[in-house]
Design a protein that fits this description.
Chain lengths: 312, 412
């Protein structure tokens, strides 16, 4: 990315403007909130936020709102369709001569439950229609707001309240759904994964996305102390570990062309990341070494491919 | 200008003359012609609107609701299963106070699967906060669309509206329909001017934040109920202007041959045409019977019913729907309306018929009247709904049951 012109070079370039009021009711150390706060800084004041049930819904609890932006709360399933109605209405209003800021944006903010599971049909429809909007998924890898139940974003071997680890099952036995690739199959202009511990990378991706008309999709890791059983003080560190172990690759796809924006030369062992969270604690009783190996092998295989194609 | 129009085309024309600015579409039998026509008119430039094909009714309602919230007059239409799929969004749209108008083409609800008319779908959304206007004819379908916007967009109301027509009979039936000039409709229907559109950055609003306290939630529900109650008087104002400007007069209920009547049959939708015809014939035979037809179902025209039915001996309610475990929806609502009436009819009797397009004839109407008269004379207290199967229905049913079960089964 360094070859491209950008206003974000170091941490000092993070915009000072805040669109999120201090004192939101989200949990201490919430990674989703960190990532969203950065995203809003990049998007600016003319952003209409569409949101559904999930942790971020707590930003607007009657009679308060923690966002200094227009906000619409819609049904769990329906965020992309709600965004479609607003984007289409903006088209109508402009055609009638209503003056709206040139950089008016519609931003959908949803968790992984809405994005990977229940709202996938609605988002597929909007992506297929090439809806000009930003779609920000804070992926805390389970239904966090309802008490951390399994979603199709839940990683392999994670314990959730509906995929318990017992002496018969090692927690969730499915691999995390690859939403990035599902999005990519829709032929959209811009897709990126982001992590709050890499703010410059995150901001640059939003900056770059602004060039494109159509869906601009972001998958943000949402370190979730409450659900993951991690130390709230460690959120940024855990976020960084997710990137450095290769579990959370930072990448983008421009019209389907994938490029990693951070390529570690060597990977930290996945164990280092998994050990920071109680949801994986059951794996370290000495009886799950095979599964841990399988986990590591899967991550290695992913990166072998990246190294061989992108590091020439 | 008079045109030969189907009910579906009348719905589309209703949207067109209301100068709808945004349309969401998704096909379903027997509604599809509505969105076909609208998409074509937008593509041709005959309508200055944006049309979007959605991937489901749920999304479609989300889209039109959000457009309405942004300050754009939005329209859609659907039917049956589609409406049920979208029902969650209907509550959201009403709660947003987004005065969307949609046309429902009434059709039964599976399972078993059925394509023909029944009012289970439209009755299924009675609690959502949508106002409801029920059309009997193609002309009413068309007229009720601008009426719906006028009432729904009124600041005292700010509620979405469902206009109901019956599948097949009306949706595909052709009638001469007067399409009023745009100029006249403009005179009747002011521009949609939403307070606090969501696209206003100078005054950002958070629409529908989560509520954690019951009292606040209850306050907003009370606001919805009050808006429904106010919609009644707004209906009368709109109807008066509609008559003055366009020349047709609508009351929340239609009263037919009620003067000096002892008995009445209550109904809604296109089967009322059959019932009205039968009532006229029965009158010719000296029966003192009349009819009341519902045009406005939400808010429920309680006072109008009390006024129309007080002093009668007996009232039969023809429900083309069933709330399973209770009975006909209109019947139960009417019972409440009449409960405190000083001269309430002694007998209120429930009939279920016409489900899934089952036919009713003069005989069915005569049967309803006979049952009613018997009950009044004998002092019977009617309990369960009476099902309107004809002799022919029962014969055909027996054949079908024999075919599938391999034995003679007589349905009672
Ligand atoms: S449950 Fe997790 S994602 Fe939700 S607010 Fe708390 S820390 Fe954030």
């Amino acid at each position: 990315m360094s070859s491209e012109p950008t206003r974000y070079r170091t941490l000092k370039d993070i915009p000072k403007e805040e669109y999120m009021a201090p004192g939101t009711p989200l949990c201490a150390g919430c990674g989703a909130q960190l990532a969203l706060r950065l995203a809003l800084k990049a998007l600016g004041p003319h952003t209409i936020v569409v949101n559904v049930p999930g942790c971020v819904a707590l930003f607007a609890i009657y009679p308060y709102s923690s966002l200094k932006l227009p906000f619409v709360f819609t049904s769990f399933v329906a965020a992309p369709a709600t965004a479609q109605g607003i984007v289409d209405a903006i088209k109508v209003l402009r055609s009638k001569g209503v003056n709206l800021p040139e950089d008016t944006k519609v931003l959908v903010v949803v968790g992984d439950g809405a994005a990977y599971d229940i709202g996938l049909q609605s988002s597929s429809g909007a992506l297929h229609r090439q809806l000009d909007h930003y779609y920000f998924v804070y992926d805390n890898e389970a239904y966090g707001n309802t008490g951390f139940q399994y979603s199709s974003a839940t990683p392999f071997l994670s314990r959730t309240t509906t995929s318990e680890a017992t002496d018969r099952v090692p927690g969730n036995t499915f691999w995390k759904k690859d939403l990035f690739e599902i999005w990519r199959a829709h032929g959209v202009p811009y897709i990126a994964t982001v992590a709050a511990s890499k703010p410059v990378d995150l901001l640059r991706k939003f900056e770059k996305a602004a060039r494109f008309k159509g869906p601009k999709l972001f998958l943000a890791l949402g370190v979730c102390p409450t659900g993951w059983g991690s130390d709230p003080q460690m959120t940024v560190k855990i976020d960084k570990l997710a990137v450095e172990t290769g579990i959370w690759p930072l990448k983008e796809a421009v019209y389907g062309e994938v490029r990693h924006t951070y390529i570690p030369r060597s990977l930290k062992p996945v164990e280092e990341y998994l050990r920071t969270q109680r949801r994986f604690a059951h794996l370290f009783d000495g009886k799950h070494d095979d599964l841990l190996k399988e986990y590591q092998a899967r991550v290695n295989a992913y990166w072998e491919k990246v190294w061989s194609t992108e590091l020439k | 200008m008079k045109r030969m129009l189907t009910g579906n085309a009348s719905a589309a024309w209703g949207a067109r003359i209301s100068e709808v600015e945004y349309i969401g579409g998704y096909p379903i039998t027997p509604q599809s012609e509505v969105v076909e026509l609208l998409s074509k008119w937008v593509a041709e430039g005959a309508m200055n609107a944006v049309y979007t094909n959605y991937e489901s009714e749920h999304s479609m309602f989300a889209g039109v609701g959000a457009a309405s919230l942004s300050g754009v007059r939005a329209f859609t239409s659907t039917s049956s299963q589609g409406l049920m799929f979208a029902i969650e969004m209907l509550y959201a749209i009403a709660g947003w106070r987004a005065p969307v108008v949609f046309v429902n083409v009434a059709r039964g609800l599976g399972m078993p699967m059925i394509l023909q008319v029944e009012h289970g779908d439209i009755m299924g959304i009675r609690d959502t906060g949508f106002l409801q206007l029920h059309a009997e004819t193609c002309q009413e379908v068309l007229d009720f669309v601008p009426m719906a916007y006028r009432i729904g967009e009124d600041r005292r109301v700010m509620l979405p509206v469902a206009v109901n027509m019956d599948g097949f009979l009306i949706s595909f039936g052709r009638e001469p329909v007067d399409v009023p000039d745009k100029e006249l409709v403009r005179d009747f229907l002011p521009k949609y001017n939403r307070p606090y559109p969501v696209v206003d950055f100078s005054n950002p609003v958070a629409y529908a934040p989560t509520i954690v306290d019951g009292y606040a939630y209850m306050y907003f529900k009370e606001q919805l109920q009050k808006a429904q109650e106010r919609a009644r008087e707004v209906f009368y104002e709109a109807a008066a202007d509609f008559e003055r400007i366009i020349g047709r007069r609508y009351e929340p209920i239609e009263r037919y041959m009620l003067d000096d009547a002892d008995y009445a049959i209550v109904s809604t939708g296109s089967y009322s045409t059959i019932i009205r015809g039968a009532v006229r014939r029965l009158r010719e035979r000296g029966e003192r019977v009349g009819m009341v037809r519902i045009r406005m179902f939400r808010p429920f025209p309680r006072d109008e019913f009390v006024d129309a039915l007080s002093g009668l001996k007996g009232v039969a309610v023809f429900d083309q729907n069933i709330s399973l475990g209770k009975g006909g929806v209109i019947y139960t609502e009417l019972a409440e309306a009449l409960y405190h009436a000083k001269e309430r009819p002694r007998v209120l009797m429930s009939f279920i018929g016409g489900l899934g397009g089952a036919e009713i004839s003069f005989d069915a109407v005569r049967y309803m009247l006979e049952r009613l008269k018997d009950a009044v004379a004998s002092g019977e207290e009617p309990r369960n709904p009476n099902w309107l199967f004809s002799e022919e229905d029962r014969r055909r049913l027996a054949r079908a049951l024999k075919l599938t079960l391999g034995e003679e089964v007589i349905s009672e």
